[in-house]
Amino acid sequence: MATKKQADPGPSLPGTAAASAGRKAWKKKTPVEVVVDQINKLRDEVTKDEEALKDKRRQLQKMEEARKIFEAV
Fold first, then answer.
1. Predicted TM-score of the model (pTM)
2. How far is CA 35 from the centre of its chain?
3. CA atoms of 73 and 67, how far apart (whole Å)
4. How far apart are CA 42 and CA 61, in angstroms?
5. Which residues are CB-contacts of 14 (< 8 A; sequence separation ≥ 6)?
6. What's the start-to-end Cα distance of the chain, in Å?
7. Which of 12, 32, 33, 49 has its Cβ near the most Cβ atoms within 10 Å?
8. Is a pLDDT exceeding 70 seen at residue 60?
9. Residue pair 37/29 in contact by the 8 Å Cβ criterion
10. CA torsion 47→51→53→59, rounded to 10°?
């Protein structure tokens, strides 16, 4: 018994109707754009890490205050 395989359409080629309907066209970035994007991503990470550090410092301060209370008792 032979079974028929359905042809897999596979990925569509750029410029076809299916490719333009689902996604926007890929645009090659210049080296300057790549570096600027990396700088922006790193700046966002640093900002996020600084906020996390501030939260941990506040938590540490509260814990040290609690320790002082427990040691005083």
1. 0.55
2. 17
3. 10
4. 28
5. 25, 26
6. 87
7. 12
8. yes
9. yes
10. 180
The CA–CA distances, whole Å, from 28 to 5, 19, 55, 58 equal 37, 17, 40, 44
Among 21-25, 52-56, 68-72, whose mean pLDDT is lowest? 21-25
Residue corresponding to tokens 């410092």: 57
Q: Which two tokens stand for residue 54?
A: 């501030």
pLDDT in tens, 3-25: 666 655 555 555 555 555 788 89
pLDDT confidence band for 52 (50 / 70 / 90): very high
Going 10 to 11 to 16 to 21, the CA torsion angle's sign is positive
Number of H helices, E strands in the chain: 2, 0
